[in-house]
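Still learning. Show one?

>
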Amino acid sequence: MSDLRARRKEIEAAGVGIVLVHLASEPEATEFLGAHGLADLPRISDPEKRLYGALNLPRGTLRTLFGPRVWLRGFLAGAPRWLGGAGLGVGRPQGDPLQMPGTFVIHRGRIVREHRHRDVADRPDYCTLARGACAGSQDTR
């Protein structure tokens, strides 16, 4: 979420809208996104995982949920803000904690770019996914 918050203005300036799909209830989503400065984004609550299923996003395995990259990313994310982290207590899993995420760019009803997370520590480059519209992006795959 911190990456999305940091690049949000660039993404939106390129004419790309952001819509979040989540598994949480609306009050839980409001609280979680508010803690990340993103509570005003449009969002869809999908606790039945219909969209996740339609996009073929799998549930995680032990490695995708608890592998070394995940532990390192979790440590860095929980670091104090002055070290570049978000601090502890920024959020807790909502809905199905095993559900893997994905990021999709949809244009005229078709998926034109996508990033399927390798593990829960994966951090897509949102600007690259927005068709390279933001300067300074690196290609993700």
